[in-house]
Amino acid sequence: MRVSRVQAAENRQTVINVASRLFRERGFDGIGLKDLMEGAGLTQGAFYKQFASKEDLAVEASRRALESASGRWSDAAAQNPDDPLGAVIGFYLSGDHREEKMDGCPIVALGSDAARQGPDVKAEFEAGIKARLDVLDRFIAGSGDEASRGKAMGILATIVGAVTLSRVVNDPDLAQALLNAAAQQVRNAASA
Fold first, then answer.
1. Which long-range contacts (C-beta less than 8 Å, at least 24 apart) are formed by 178-183?
2. Which percentage of the chain shows pLDDT scores above 90?
């Protein structure tokens, strides 16, 4: 049975959405096409009608994951417009976010994998990182100069590192202490 163009476009978006979540959970190489397509409710044969390669899908899924994460930052900031940085840090450095393997930060979940991917996947991550730096610079009332950009870079590196470290330890108290220490460092850096 032939699939309409509208249905094909919907199927493509479904595959991208599913891949963005499954890649964050298992890594780019931790899931095969068969399981990805099964997760999307489609056959493996339908994959090649939608994507040139798994790398093509990785680019699209990375973009989707980074857009989703940006939306979550925006939502958190909108909930506390008087302290958007505090709101984002509160959300980002929470135990709940730490546990969100499929929906959490793609930089944390896929950063080391992305470093081993081709230039197109890396370009998506670079764009996502730059976008977060721009947001952080605005949150800390930076002027976009070298000093405020450096502060934004330090904050991003601190929070990404803290969530990464908190995910790799078994001790829940240590995991929470890492998140708490990072939150304090960010508050100190932002007020300096």
1. 179/93, 179/94, 179/95, 179/98, 180/93, 182/93, 182/158, 183/89, 183/90, 183/93
2. 83
